[in-house]
Amino acid sequence: PLHHSAERGQLQSVEVMLDARADVGRVSNEIMTPLHLAATNGHSWCCKALIVSRAYIDERGGQQKMTALHMATERGHVHTARLLIAERADLNIPDAQRRLPIEMCRNDEMRRV
């Protein structure tokens, strides 16, 4: 349920589950945490709630072993990328293909983040 709500940006549902001590580090069948799913879809407020609840910001997930920052930059979610950087996401963690988050940027606005 936490994965589903984070992926869809349902902040109230995410907060209810976090208050009930849902496991923020649990991985889905796709080997992704709720933070990965929220970042992939640009749900910054859900990302913030998960980080406050101690989600590991630099967890690598999915087939490409990307961090939440990789996923946000790849999809062009500027606000989410800014949030992750402000929350001290490591900019130097490579994915499975040795790409850094900056290399995932698709436009100049994202590169300026």
UniProtKB/TrEMBL annotation:
InterPro entries noted in UniProt: Ankyrin_rpt, Ankyrin_rpt-contain_sf
Keyword Repeat attached: yes
Keywords: ANK repeat, Repeat
Pfam families according to UniProt: Ank, Ank_2
UniProt key word Glycoprotein: no
The ANK repeat ranges on this chain: 1-29, 64-96
Signal peptide: none
Name recorded for this polypeptide: Uncharacterized protein
